[in-house]
Fold this protein.
Amino acid sequence: MPESSSVTSGTGVVPDDSEAGSDAPATQPGDAARSGAEALPGHAARSGDGAGGSAGAAASGPVVVDRETLRLALVVGGLVLAVVLGFGLGRMNAPAGPARPGGATAGGAATGADGGGHAHSPGTGAHTHDGATVTQGGGDGATGLSITSAGYTLVPSTELVAGRAGELRFQIRDDQRRAVTRFAVVHDKPMHVIMVRRDLSGYRHLHPTMAADGTWSVPITPPEAGPWRMYADFTAVADDGRQVAVVLGADLTASGAYRPRPLPAAATSATVDGFTVGYAGTPEVGKSVPLRFRVTGAAGAAAALEPYLGAYGHLVALREGDLGYLHVHPEPVRDGDDVMFWLTAPGPGSYRMFLDFQVGGVVRTAEFTLTVA
């Protein structure tokens, strides 16, 4: 470090001692000590009572000794001061490692709104997805509110027309505007895309494929016109091997007349394709609360859930208004017939929850409106 160099340079004053020694070559260290003892102010005063020549000799002796003593003291003091300053400055300026996107260093977990590591319950702003660290959020626990976060940017290149088959295309770019091409596989896929209309209808959970140039694409037919929101949920692999999980959001428009629908009333059960899906639990603001989901068939018996994308269910919650995104993963082990998730509501208001589950090789989505006081 530069501070260490300056400390080393400081010790370079040691050669001054040899120069001082050349002024009195016959004087040994012990003699210098004794001469110093004779150079006390009191003795110097008494030597002045003698003849002029003797007084001059006596006076000149102490002056030389005092200068030598002062030189030695300055050398020793300079060495001590240089060591102390070098140590202190070194500690103040110790390198913390190369910076990571989102405020992390290579020596530790990346930090976001509330730090790194998976010490938080799922649904909080900064958490991990299979060991990678989420470093972005809306400040209150919701993610997907920004097109750029954690050093990555979502760049869509899509024109959507309601009712017409099209293709969703986009790239993820780093802070040097390069297309990112290395992604970790999380829940069986390297990229998860959520599409929803601004009124929280038309939910889609998509898995695009990536071309060699980093362009992702997936077929899509928007069922209705209006403003849509897309979320890219992924874990990027940096050049040094770091993994950073990010959720980015961007607005898209499907041409045509927009006729928003009101949000359905809050309910704890929903039906889809003959299955009834219910949940128990009351989410609270800022508190991690368990939600237990159970899927039953037409006869009321528990459905034979199958693993889908490495889990028995995937839950996404979107906040009405700003469309803040909460992707909440379940407990790895089922509690009997239930699938349990931990949800932390970032604030009061209405949310729309979407539960993906698989039975008989078919993936279905149950939708719920949730009101958090």
